[in-house]
């Protein structure tokens, strides 16, 4: 990539990836509850999901979605249901008599699913390929280059969300504080699900 093209790519990708959305919210909440280390597998899955989406869109999956626009609606609802499932886990940890520390860590598969059902990420990746693929050049090398660049941007931009969650909320570890976090995080996840469907 020419230096000018790198600057344009970063000008597109960094604000899109670092801006608040369902994925960054879940990363921050996981960082708050489990720390950077405890969020590692989920984060790895999240980045693997980004790579999978990039490869799918770069190699033509986006055209299939355009052919079947109802798939977008299906994906929105599936993503909202998944976010509500995550909210349920936080609410369960806040229930009277529950041990707040027993909320399950989200793992590798959860990270992949969180990306595959995140319409914001689908939109970002679709626009990225529409904007930066050059039809007069070989497809595979461009897809690999854009995928690698998107992965690097993702790693760099997702870390502050995870670390920020750990730094801001990670010091509150009493049972009462974790119950409050469970209610607040569960409520935030419900808000994210509602936002996904009605915005």
Describe the structure concisely for a colleague.
With 199 residues, the chain is mainly α. It has eight helices and no strands.
How would you describe what is shown here?
The protein has 199 residues and is an all-alpha fold. Helix content is 82%, strand content 0%. The chain has eight helices and no strands. The longest helix has 37 residues. The two termini are 35 Å apart.
Record keyword descriptors for this entry:
199 residues, mainly alpha, 82% helix
Q: What topology emerges from the helices and strands here?
A:
Elements: H1 3-18, H2 22-58, H3 61-67, H4 70-94, H5 108-116, H6 119-132, H7 139-169, H8 175-198
Helix pairs in contact: 1-6, 1-7, 2-5, 2-6, 2-7, 2-8, 4-8
Q: If helices are DSSP runs of H or I spanning 4 or more residues, what is the number of helices? A: 8
Which whole number gives the mean pLDDT? 85
Which structural class should the secondary elements be placed in?
mainly alpha
For the CA atoms, what is the radius of gyration? 18 Å
In which range does the helix fraction lie? over 70%
Q: Report the principal-axis shape.
A: globular
The span between the termini is: 35 Å
Task: List low-confidence stretches.
Answer: none
List SSEs in N-to-C order: HHHHHHHH
Q: How many beta strands in the DSSP annotation?
A: 0
Strand content is: under 5%
- Tell me about the biggest sheet? none
């Amino acid at each position: 990539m020419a230096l000018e093209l790198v600057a344009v790519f970063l000008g597109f990708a960094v604000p899109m990836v670092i801006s608040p959305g369902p994925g960054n919210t879940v990363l921050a909440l996981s960082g708050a509850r489990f720390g950077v280390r405890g969020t590692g597998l989920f984060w790895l899955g999240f980045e693997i999901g980004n790579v999978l989406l990039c490869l799918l869109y770069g190699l033509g999956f986006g055209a299939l979605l355009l052919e079947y626009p109802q798939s977008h609606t299906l994906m929105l609802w599936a993503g909202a249901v998944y976010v509500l499932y995550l909210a349920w886990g936080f609410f369960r940890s806040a229930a009277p008599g529950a041990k707040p520390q027993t909320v399950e860590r989200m793992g590798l598969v959860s990270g992949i699913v969180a990306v595959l059902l995140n319409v914001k990420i689908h939109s970002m990746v679709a626009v990225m390929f529409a904007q930066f693929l050059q039809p007069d050049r070989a497809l595979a090398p461009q897809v690999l280059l854009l995928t690698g660049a998107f992965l690097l941007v993702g790693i760099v931009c997702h870390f502050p969300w995870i670390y920020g969650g750990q730094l801001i909320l990670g010091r509150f570890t009493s049972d009462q504080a974790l119950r409050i976090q469970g209610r607040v995080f569960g409520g935030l996840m419900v808000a994210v699900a509602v936002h996904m469907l009605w915005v």
